[in-house]
Amino acid sequence: MTTKSILQILPPPPPHMVGDGFRVHNFFPSGYNLGKWSMSPFFLLDYNSKVSFTPRENPRGVGVHPHRGFETVTIAFHGKVAHHDSAGNSGIIEDGDVQWMTAASGVLHKEYHEQEFSRSGGLFQMVQLWVNLPAKHKMSPPKYQAIKNSMMGKYVLPANNGSVDIVAGTFKEIKGPAFTFTPIEMYIISLKKDATLAFSLPENYNTGLLILDGNVKINHEEEANEDTFTVFQKDGDEINLEAINDCKILVISGEPINEPIKAYGPFLMNTNEEIVEAMNDFAQGKFGKLED
Ligand code: MN
User: What's the pTM value of the predicted model, to 2 decimals?
Assistant: First the structure.
């Protein structure tokens, strides 16, 4: 085992609103240019750090919009998100749940605060990742995985020192339920103060840690504070964590997709021609129908 070196611990960039329901820090691709250390297959990370919304009858959110060529992965930590898409899927992402939506050939969807959460208001914290698809799957049919917290793999630390929810991949031989098109590891780690945890990830994967709660010491050297995103180099296969106080951490790690990327708004393709085609298909209503 060799330790994966820390490349950088990134503080959260200034937030912006997505619609009127999501106040997000975009770590990449806009917030930081990670260059050759790109986080592929993860194309975008929007992080809604903890914020309190006032009660409102009419839920805040983002209206109907298209996606093609990738997957949106939405994780709720506080608050509840409701969504509908033109493939006929809908549901509520509750605290601790993950929604893994494969837009692929194209869907329209809308994302809102869930009605009861909107009425009561309160603490809201969530993540949305855009996961790229390899060229051969960009035009696959849309797909949808509602991953409730209870469906996730569970690893419990000795002496009740914390736990790990495994969303995708395998953590210490425990599997997560998400189907992924390319190899991806995704875990939500909760550690009690002073707990330590070591785990391994493939050396060639792009890997990052988002600190959702608390502070953690990484690899016995650097401290990562709440709301920071730590990017690792591809030079080792082990990460060591030591909780400075009670903490919660999202781990994302995946095998890079080494293909050209053309990104435009809600479309993520390989060529300019495919972007033009996506815009034309959207204009012609080929992404289906969804009411506002
Ligand atoms: Mn969307």
Answer: 0.97
Pairwise CA distance, residues 49 & 62, whole Å: 18
Confidence of residue 117 (pLDDT cuts 50, 70, 90): very high
Ligand 1 centroid to residue 124 C-alpha, Å: 18
Compute the distance from residue 131 Cα to the ligand 1 centre, in Å.
12
* Fold annotation for 6-254: Jelly Rolls (2.60.120)
Q: What is the pLDDT of residues 10-34, one digit of tens each?
A: 999 999 999 999 999 999 999 999 8
Question: Domain-by-domain residue ranges, the chain?
Answer: 6-254
Tokens found for residue 218: 């990484």
Share of the chain residues as helix, strand and coil, in percent rounded to the nearest 5: 10, 50, 40
Taking 90 as the threshold, does the pLDDT of residue 35 lie above it?
Answer: no
Quote the CA–CA distance of 108 and 165 in Å, as a whole number: 30
How far apart are alpha carbons 11 and 27 in whole angstroms? 9
* 37, pLDDT greater than 80: no
How far, in Å, from the CA of 110 to the mean position of ligand 1?
7
